[in-house]
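Sample intake sheet
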Amino acid sequence: MSQRTAIADAPNPGEVKDQMELSPAERELLLEELAALAGSIRDPAARSRYAELGDAVADGQIGGERMAELEGLLELSLGTGRARRLHGPENERLLLRLYHQTPRGAVIRARTEDANRALSALAGQSLRGVSFSALGPGVYRLEISTDRCQLTLETDRLGITVDSLGVEL
C-alpha cells in the first residue's frame, strides 16, 4: 500500500471516538511501533497492557482501557520524532490524525483551535509587546500586547490554552 493511499484511508480527524476501527495502514504502523516499544518495557504489568493493545490493534478495534495505551504509544512515537524518521511525513500525518481522534488528542486539537481563534482577533492591531516566560517544567506563557488588547496563552503537555484576553476600552 502506498503512503498516499494510507493517508486517504485515514478517518475524519475531527471525530473523537470511544471505540476506534483501524484501517490496514494504521494497523501496520501501530504494530511496528508496538514491536519497537516491546523491547524497552521492563515492567511486566506495562508489558501485558501493551501486549493487549497489540492484540486489539491486530483485531482492528481499539476501545475502553486500550485507548489510554494507544494515546501513550502515539504520543511517544510522534513526540520523539520517531514516526517521521522511520515512516516518513505522510505516515506521520496518518498517526497524527489517529491521535486527534483519541480523547487526549481531541483536547489538544480543540485547545489549539481556540488559541488560533484568539490570535486571529489580533489581526490589524499594532503590536506593543511580546514576552515569553517559563512557569515550570514544560509549562510556558506567551503574553501579547497590542494597541487594543492583551492576550495571554499558556502551553503544557496538553497543548495550549487561552489564559486571558483583556480588551482596552
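Comment: Residues 1-14 have pLDDT under 50 and may be disordered. The longest strand covers residues 127-136.
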